[in-house]
Amino acid sequence: MKSMRFQPGTYLEVDDLVGGRKVVMVCKDGVTFWDMLDAKVATPLVIHPSLNPVEIGTFAQFSAANGLQRATRKLIAFLRRRLDARMDSDPLFVMRVLWFVAQKRVGDAYEPDDGVLDWACEQSQSQQQAAARIHGYANKFCGA
Predict the structure, then answer these.
(1) Which residues constitute the domain of residue 48?
(2) Is 77 within a domain?
(3) pLDDT tens by residue, 119-138
(4) Residues 139/131, Cβ–Cβ less than 8 Å
């Protein structure tokens, strides 16, 4: 199996194997990724060329490269205002939210409204739930 190497702790966009794309975090070894940060549930997966990985960098790099600095500040304030613990405990969730916000970006200096931020949070949560389902199926079938 051919693997690829990326900078640990950065983010990739990969095929989700159901026709879409998702955001994942590169593990410390640089050749595997987490699609959810719950190590009790998830197992790192190999970064394979068939997933068409695209490096999107760190949170700050992605924000700057996409002109999302204002959107990033708004997102952080939004999550803090809602006392969303994932702001501090789940960087993959926060990155996914920003990735979804980027899909709605209109023009330079984009600032999403609360409706877009709610939608992006829901989409990020959906990616995590899909990953949990897949890991659950793997545990069920491999553990039997």
Answers:
(1) 11-143
(2) yes
(3) 999 999 988 887 777 656 55
(4) no
